[in-house]
User: Which sequence fits this backbone?
């Protein structure tokens, strides 16, 4: 059994190593200022020190490469916000503001990948499906919380929960992405607090004392 398991493990490790090298190469090239859409597969493969054919064994096309790059970026973007929606909200708008600051910081850290994701999703069906799926997952977290708040009687019973969830997630994502494209950082706190106030008032209708 050991003699069979060990070679398989080594194959998996080699595959993972190649995959990570390709992802790292693409990330470094984007960090150097090359837009993702202008990165040829041959250059990515050369920087990763793998054959072009090996690249395609791991990533059938550049769409799959972008999706792999975006997995970590999107998870980082939504992590803190998901945590806030699942928390008790005892800290009021300050808790939302903290989550918004973290989202802004995550967007800045991964801005090239997230920018490429938004651009390519406009014309690539696979990338668009990935992005819709991630936004749908975020919306479900928000919708579950709004449903719970409505059952508890803490929000307007007439609230259209699914639509409100959609409005909130896209307001946050679009605002942060547009802000980070045009502001190098001085306006981050204002955006975080304004988004926090907008979210809180939309959900609860009143500003806490």
Assistant:
């Amino acid at each position: 059994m050991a003699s069979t398991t060990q070679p398989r493990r080594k194959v998996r490790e080699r595959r993972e190593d190649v995959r990570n090298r390709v992802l790292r190469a693409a990330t470094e090239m984007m960090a150097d200022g090359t837009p993702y859409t202008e990165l040829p597969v041959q250059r990515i493969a050369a920087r990763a020190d793998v054959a072009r054919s090996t690249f395609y064994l791991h990533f059938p096309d550049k769409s799959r490469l972008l999706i792999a790059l975006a997995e970590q970026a999107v998870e980082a973007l939504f992590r803190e916000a998901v945590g806030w929606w699942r928390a008790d909200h005892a800290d009021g708008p300050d808790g939302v503001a903290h989550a918004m600051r973290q989202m802004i910081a995550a967007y800045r850290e991964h801005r090239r990948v997230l920018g490429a994701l938004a651009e390519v999703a406009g014309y690539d069906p696979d990338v668009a499906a990935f992005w819709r799926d991630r936004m749908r997952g975020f919306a479900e977290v928000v919708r579950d919380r709004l449903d719970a708040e409505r059952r508890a009687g803490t929000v307007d019973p007439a609230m259209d929960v699914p639509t409100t969830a959609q409005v909130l997630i896209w307001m946050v994502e679009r605002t942060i992405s547009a802000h980070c494209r045009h502001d190098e950082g001085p306006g981050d706190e204002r955006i975080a607090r304004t988004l926090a106030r907008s979210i809180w008032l939309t959900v609860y209708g009143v500003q806490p004392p």
